[in-house]
Amino acid sequence: MLPGFFDATFLAALATVIAAGLLRGFAGFGSGMMMAPIFVLLYGPVQTVAIVILLDIVVTAQLLPGVRRDVQWRFVLQMGFVAALFMPLGSRLLVTVDAAPMARAISLAVLAFVVILASGWRYPGERRKPVTGLVGAVSGTMMAATSLGMPPVMLYLLAGKESAAAARANVTGYFAITLAALIVVMVVSGLVSTDSLLTAATLLPAYMLAVWTGSRLFRASSEILYRRVALVCLFCAGIIGLIGG
Q: Which helix (H) or strand (E) holds 118?
């Protein structure tokens, strides 16, 4: 063991946040999918949710100024509002219920939609409010329960006609709304500990630098590359959910 914070656990967490930050900066999402399975082993489920949320709310503030003009705020606010309403349910599940069956069901649905989207299919119509609300409800519940609330949102966005830049902007705007709400829910519920704050603060500089680097890589990428990266991330999230569940 190395002295102080810089022991084997911290170094494993540091390597994880660097990889996750590159993905978050490029795709606009996916960091929680990468961090959560490893952090659960390092810190336990409750601290994992707190650490991931604390890290992501800071980098969301870092990314938002660059994409705010591309965000479809009416759509994002509607979905984010419903997600916030369902977060207390997710927080309750985090501390009281074995979420494995729910995680497996959602993972199977994610994998099915990844296959459909990989075929090139896109939904040509307008997004209906009931469906948008349902996506927000599932996302908000899963975000508070596991920190993995983005797969249903990204599948919903990728199924539409928007460009890669628009999808990335919308998910960043959605993050800004839902993470702010989730921090409040977790603090009120007593789920943010001093250890979580210290761990997040120590990992944050490396995470922010990795996110910045990923953002630069996105600017040099193409529409096809973005969709491929996003679908691979979602496929991995589905597999992780099945195995971890």
A: helix 100-118
Amino acid found at 54: L
Name every residue whose Cβ is closer than 8 Å to that of residue 197 and which is 6 or more positions away in sequence.
Answer: 54
Cα(76)–Cα(2) distance, integer angstroms: 44
Residue 147 DSSP one-character state: S
Distance CA 67, CA 241 (A): 30
Half-sphere exposure of residue 49: CA atoms within 13 angstroms, side-chain side = 29
Reference 192, options 30, 55, 54; nearest CA is 54
Per-residue pLDDT reduced to its tens digit, 7-55: 888 899 999 999 989 988 998 887 887 888 788 888 887 888 889 989 9
The DSSP string of 33-97 is: HHHHHHHHHHH-HHHHHHHHHHHHHHHHHHHHHHHGGG--HHHHHHHHHHHHHHHHHHHHHHHHS
> Contact 31/235 with Cβ under 8 angstroms?
no
Non-local (6+) Cβ contacts of 21 within 8 A are: 31, 59, 206, 207, 208, 209, 210, 211, 213, 214
pTM given for the model: 0.78
